[in-house]
Write a structure and sequence with these properties.
By secondary structure, the chain is of the alpha+beta class. The protein has helices at 45-54, 81-84, 90-106, 117-127, 137-161, and strands spanning 7-12, 17-21, 27-31, 37-39.
Length: 168
């Protein structure tokens, strides 16, 4: 330790961290998966927290071994999209647009909500399609007008066929 370089002494938490001591005797721990150096003061709770939060899929237990490859000890955490990515069909997009129009009309939501980035992100997660395009304002307004016209025609037809009408 007299040459000024850190000295690696032993491993912590079953080879998940390597203990490093500098020339002043201060200790730190280096994560063997990501290489991040953390402070270490004789308690491994912060190291355990780092490992559980940053590397949840790197466990070598048999229950999680299949998630990150054959050995279960890959040095990366897969993204959410690697599990849910799919393409939406034209029918899916039509049904989503119709449901969106009904939601906006029934709950009196502003049509401008379709331009919100957060709303777009929610639909991307819900559909599992990262390339999903939320319909624009003009498309939504056109669909709402069409829904109104069809519902209005349906009500008019039922009123013409009715013998009695009660208004409350």
């Amino acid at each position: 330790m007299t040459d000024g370089t850190p000295h690696r002494r032993r491993t912590l938490l079953r080879d998940k961290f390597v203990l490093i001591a500098d020339k002043e005797g201060k200790q730190s721990a280096e994560c063997t998966f990501c290489g991040k150096v953390l402070k270490y003061h004789h308690l491994a709770s912060s190291l355990s927290y780092h490992y559980k939060r940053k590397h949840p899929f790197t466990s070598t237990s048999s229950s999680q071994a299949g998630l990150c490859g054959d050995s279960g000890s890959n040095a990366y955490q897969p993204s959410m999209w690697s599990f849910v990515r799919r393409k939406t069909t034209a029918d899916d997009e039509h049904n989503i647009t119709k449901a969106l129009c009904l939601w906006i009309a029934q709950d009196l939501r502003p049509v401008s909500i379709v331009e919100d980035k957060g709303f777009s992100d929610v639909l991307k997660v819900a559909t599992g399609n990262t390339e999903f395009k939320v319909p624009g304002r003009s498309t939504i307004m056109e669909k709402i007008k069409n829904l109104y016209a069809s519902k209005s025609a349906e009500i008019q037809t039922s009123l013409v066929a009715a013998n009695h009408v009660v208004l409350a």
